[in-house]
Automatic annotation (TrEMBL):
It comes from Priestia aryabhattai. Gene3D superfamilies: Helix-loop-helix DNA-binding domain (4.10.280.10). GO terms for biological process: regulation of sporulation. Pfam families: SpoOE-like. GO terms for molecular function: protein dimerization activity. This is Aspartyl-phosphate phosphatase Spo0E family protein.
């Protein structure tokens, strides 16, 4: 029960972080180009967040 509540809270936090990073990536991409170093770094960060989300979702 406690683990489920923890995973649910973590999942919600990850979704908020993913959405914020996605919005930032789009903003930076429009300003600097979608292949700029900064855009790619943010994209890689989003990939890491998505991997974390997948990991906790698959254990529920």
């Amino acid at each position: 029960m406690q683990r489920y509540r923890y995973n649910s809270t973590l999942r919600k936090a990850l979704l908020v972080d993913i959405e914020a990073a996605r919005e930032l990536m789009i903003k930076v991409g429009l300003e600097e180009g979608f292949t700029s170093r900064d855009t790619i770094i943010i994209s890689q960060f989003i990939d890491q967040l998505l991997n974390q989300l997948e990991k906790i979702t698959s254990t529920d």
